[in-house]
Amino acid sequence: MPETAPRKVTLQGENVAYEVRQSDEATQPRIDLDLHGVRVVLPDDSTTDPEELLKENAVWVLEKKRKYDAYREQIPDREFEEGERFPYLGEQYEIVVEQRPASQVVENEFRLAKHHVEQTSIKRALETLYRRKARELFENRANHFSEEIGVEYDKIEVRNQRTKWGSCSTTGTLGLNWRLMMAPSDIVDYVVVHELAHLREQNHTDEFWSLVAEHDPEYTEHSEWLEDNSTSLIFSTDDL
Q1: 54, part of any domain
Q2: pLDDT, the chain, mean
Q3: 3-class secondary structure, 157
């Protein structure tokens, strides 16, 4: 998808930088916004003026841009070094590197195996530990709530989606984001309950939410917490 050098346009008195990309897959002109900025995507044969397209959608563009600007400012500035602290089930745990057979979470510390850090990095060793503990916790909570709800799931896949916390396939596979391990445990439970409930109700019907509420009475607060605190669960800039 060819792209041009960054351009600028004035929208309601505000200077906005944007890129233009040509796409043989695009069927019509569109505007994409995310953490990386504003892009106008045009079909190869398009005669649309990207600047005019942005001006026609100025209110929407500025609203989305401000949202992502605010989001970007909230992204944690994490350093992958000994002594740094990372969230684990809602609490801050310190990184310690030491001679040990395997990395483990002990007494509010991430005790990383020195040989693993030397072979890879603190970042990789820490993520590996998060993922391992995520599988342990996810399986424990899924087994607990599936019995409560009266459903059976097939398997759990520990995933790393950028914006999705959980999913449930029609075949019973639960996909759960390992970065949930940085959130409080009741948030983990909410996501597990939410996905298991889809094994009974595929859509977000009143019956679905009633089922979720039955096993997580504070699900509304937990959902809002995820919405408001998603930036605190960003592990590194690779997540963006």
Answers
A1: yes
A2: 93
A3: strand
pLDDT reading at 223 higher than 70: yes
Residue of 30, 23, 29, 20 lying closest to 44 (CA atoms): 23
Can you give the residue range of the structural domain that contains 19? 7-74
Token pair for 111: 């005790």
Distance CA 178, CA 166 (A): 10
Nearest to residue 136, comparing CAs of 85, 86, 197, 89? 89
| Residue 207, domain CATH | 3.30.2010.10
With tokens 């996909």, the residue in question is: 175
Q: Are 50 and 42 in contact (CB under 8 A)?
A: yes
Contact 132, 240 (CB under 8 A): no
Q: Which of 19, 50, 74 lies at the terminal end of a domain, its last residue? A: 74
Same domain, 33 and 108: no
Q: Is the pLDDT of residue 21 over 70?
A: yes
Report yes or no on 176 lying in a domain: yes
In this structure, the answer to whether residues 162 and 140 fall within a common structural domain is yes
pLDDT, average across residues 118-136: 97
**138/144 Cα distance (integer angstroms):** 10
Yes or no: say if 31 and 39 are a contact pair by the CB < 8 Å rule.
yes
Is residue 186 domain-resident? yes
Torsion of CA 134, 139, 140, 145, to 10 degrees: 120
- 103 C-beta neighbours (distance < 10 Å), count: 24
